[in-house]
Amino acid sequence: TQLLEQSPQFLSIQEGENLTVYCNSSSVFSSLQWYRQEPGEGPVLLVTVVTGGEVKKLKRLTFQFGDARKDSSLHITAAQPGDTGLYLCAGPNAGGTSYGKLTFGQGTILTVHP
Amino acid sequence: EAQVTQNPRYLITVTGKKLTVTCSQNMNHEYMSWYRQDPGLGLRQIYYSMNVEVTDKGDVPEGYKVSRKEKRNFPLILESPSPNQTSLYFCASRALSYNEQFFGPGTRLTVL
């Protein structure tokens, strides 16, 4: 089973600060996804990165896929209280059929204080 | 409204009493999956289904069963629940041609 390690597990910052969340593996992934989950709800897909070295931007969020496709990062600029939530990375597991098996990182709980 | 629904949302039961958590989607998605979420462990996949009558194990299938007799439904069955199955469960679905998964609202299960 391919594993994904996220860091940090917890992040508590003030509004306006920048932050980066990391998702690392010793295995190559064909793609990686980032999800955001709010309390009492299921995760919601933010982005999928597919190509090594790819950078995608979603307003103040910047996602990067490592050149070797073993890691990814999520950078938030000028964080706002509305960014508070659980951030999860996920990738298809080579052990499953055609993107059937999905592995998640353990998540990063982000709290942005006003 | 396109959605994934789960029932029940909350369930408290006792060890050994068989239970079923239902999952239904109205988006005509081929792929459906079940996950459990525990603090510090993220989401772990239990079972998934690529289409009707096609199911396969995820990373933590022990103690669970699933069936996919209809495209829209993917129930999760716990034949003999144990306290270590106390968790938050999510069902998800997606179209095979597209990688965005849509998650249900979750079912919080407590096994005493």
Description:
The complex is a heterodimer of chains A (about 110) and B (about 110). Chain A has about 110 residues and is mainly β. Chain A has no helices and eleven strands. In chain A, the strands form two sheets. In chain A, strands 2, 4, 5, 9, 10 and 11 form a six-stranded mixed β-sheet that branches. In chain A, strands 1-3-8-7-6 form a five-stranded antiparallel β-sheet, with no helix packed on it. In chain A, a hairpin with a 2-residue loop joins strand 6 (about 55-60) and strand 7 (about 60-65). Chain A is globular, with a radius of gyration of 14 Å. Chain B is about 0% helix and about 50% strand. With about 110 residues, chain B is mainly beta. Chain B has no helices and eleven strands. In chain B, the strands form two sheets. In chain B, strands 2, 4, 5, 6, 9, 10 and 11 form a seven-stranded mixed β-sheet that branches. A four-stranded antiparallel β-sheet of chain B has the order 1-3-8-7, with no helix packed on it.
In short:
The complex is a heterodimer of chains A (114) and B (112). By secondary structure, chain A is mainly β.
Strand content of chain B: over 45%
Task: Give a short account of the largest sheet of chain A.
Answer: 6 strands, mixed
Strand content of chain A: over 45%
Helix content of chain B: under 10%
Q: What spatial form of chain A do the alpha-carbon principal axes imply?
A: globular
| Order of H and E elements of chain B | EEEEEEEEEEE
Outline the low-pLDDT stretches of chain A: none
What is the number of helical segments of chain B per DSSP (H or I, 4+ residues)?
0
Q: Helix/strand-derived class of chain B? A: mainly beta
Order of helices and strands of chain A: EEEEEEEEEEE
**Overall radius of gyration of chain B:** 13 Å
Q: Percent helix among the residues of chain A? A: under 10%
Compute the average pLDDT of chain B: 95
| Class based on secondary structure composition and strand pairing of chain A | mainly beta
